[in-house]
UniProtKB/TrEMBL annotation:
InterPro entries in the cross-refs: Methyltranfer_dom, SAM-dependent_MTases_sf
High-level lineage: Bacteria, Pseudomonadati, Pseudomonadota, Gammaproteobacteria, Aeromonadales
Keyword annotations from UniProtKB, A to Z: Methyltransferase, Transferase
Protein name: Methyltransferase
Source organism superkingdom: Bacteria
Keyword Methyltransferase: yes
Domain Methyltransferase: 103-236
Length: 404
């Protein structure tokens, strides 16, 4: 048996070819489709009723096996798994951690455990360098690292109230932890990166984690740890790959495709499932109504909205949506009629989403590997893996990079 371990570059190439080839599976915008885009999948997909489809969609392994019957090329991607990284020895909550939710606390503890793990490995000692915490919120991670012996922590955050609260918590504990209240996209923030430093970013959104990587590499920051999230929140219309390999195999990901990895949810229980069902139905029912109102059969997306809107009547939702889209609502809203139209379209959307969902992980892995390869090109040794358990967050990928 061969001991060959694929490099990040090998995996990226394999993944790029697979995703390029399967583009027709993951790139569709289901709300704009009027029929299933894959005639060869129509019969087996239509054989699943809504409950069966929901159940299968929620079981990633079973769903992947189902689709692989019709897409055997997907099977080769099953070995593209990432290693489990270090975990905190426990999630016991000290008094100062009150106010941090249980799952957030576990994420922070596990993230910090990996900073310690990598420093033991490379230096035999732990946390001798100052920390820069990027897009810190109240600086919970920075505060934990300061508690765990970091000589100095600087947390960058742009929301003044979060900075004030974070500063107060650090002062109470008399920690060497300060805040810089500034926009991460400003030159002031770029200037915070230094060579002798550990720069960390827990759940930094699209543009913010891209800037983090670029600034750190430009400054020659010794060590980085970043767990990306919200890949679609970028300045450009399309994702601009950072690595040379990414530029060669550019998938031209638009924001719609960049949202796909975020569609992985931790099952939120019956109430959350019910609300998701109502939201999808109401969005589609409103779309049917607006197409009639405007005599235009294109899909009109609505922005996100507070979930409390879903506990009212559909007719109130229509009034809200019409206002958002500057449309004059009809005098009489025949809710039953529009909701019935939505029901059949909902099944179509779910069937298309079901196929797209099977590419969530592969697209996220492609985005992560592009960043890993960029850092390798800049001379870093890079480790990519899972820093916490799925029950704590689906955004659990950690890129750690060290200059040798
Ligand atoms: C998803 S939260 C993560 C917070 C923290 N790292 C955590 O995991 O709890 C992202 C944080 O980035 C901050 N943020 C968003 N845009 C920013 C910007 N342009 N400059 C600085 N901070 C920003 C937000 O206010 C928020 O606190």
């Amino acid at each position: 048996m061969s001991n060959y371990t694929p490099t990040h570059a090998d995996t990226f190439l394999q993944l790029s070819l697979l995703l390029q080839h399967a583009r027709h599976d993951w790139q569709h915008t289901p709300f704009s489709c009027t029929q299933l885009p894959w005639p060869e999948l129509a019969k087996p997909l239509q054989a699943l009723d809504e409950d069966e489809l929901d159940t299968l969609d929620a079981d990633d392994d079973a769903a992947f096996a189902w689709l692989s019957q019709y897409r055997p090329e997907l099977l080769s991607s099953q070995q593209l798994t990432l290693p489990e990284l270090a975990r905190a020895p426990n999630y016991a909550t000290p008094r100062w951690s009150s106010g941090i939710g249980g799952r957030k606390w576990a994420q922070i503890k596990d993230f910090a455990a990996n900073i310690h793990a990598i420093n033991h490995k490379f230096e035999g000692v732990t946390l001798t360098q100052p920390i820069l915490e990027w897009c810190a919120g109240k600086g919970h991670l920075g505060r934990l690292l300061a508690q765990q012996g970091a000589p100095k922590v600087t947390s960058l955050e742009w929301a003044p109230d979060l900075c004030t609260q974070g500063e107060a918590l650090a002062n109470q504990l008399q920690l060497p932890h300060e805040f810089v209240c500034a926009n991460a996209l400003s030159p002031q923030a770029a200037a915070l990166f230094k060579p002798q430093q550990i720069a960390v970013a827990l759940h930094a959104c699209g543009e913010l984690h891209l800037r983090f990587l670029e600034h750190a590499a430009a400054a020659g920051t010794q060590q980085l740890a970043v767990s990306p999230c919200c890949y679609h929140l970028i300045a450009d219309e399309h994702y601009q790959p950072l690595s040379q390999a990414g530029q060669q195999h550019d998938l031209q990901l638009d924001r719609h495709s960049l949202r796909l990895p975020l569609q992985q949810q931790i099952t939120g229980g019956e109430r959350v499932r019910r609300l998701r069902h109502i939201e999808l139905t109401w969005r589609l029912a409103f779309d049917e109504l607006q197409q009639t109102l405007t005599a235009d059969s294109s899909y009109l997306p609505l922005p996100s909205f507070p979930k409390r809107l879903l506990s009212g009547d559909f007719s109130d939702f229509v009034l809200w949506a019409c206002e958002k889209k500057s449309l004059t609502p009809p005098h009489i809203i025949d809710s039953e009629h529009w909701l019935a139209l939505a029901a059949s379209r909902r099944l179509l959307v779910k069937r298309i989403e079901f196929v797209r969902h099977r590419y969530r992980y592969l697209l996220e892995l492609w985005l992560l590997l592009d960043k890993a390869l960029f850092l390798e090109e800049q001379g870093y040794q890079v480790q990519l893996g899972l820093f916490t358990d799925l029950q704590h967050t689906p955004r659990r990928y950690l890129l750690q990079a060290t200059l040798p």
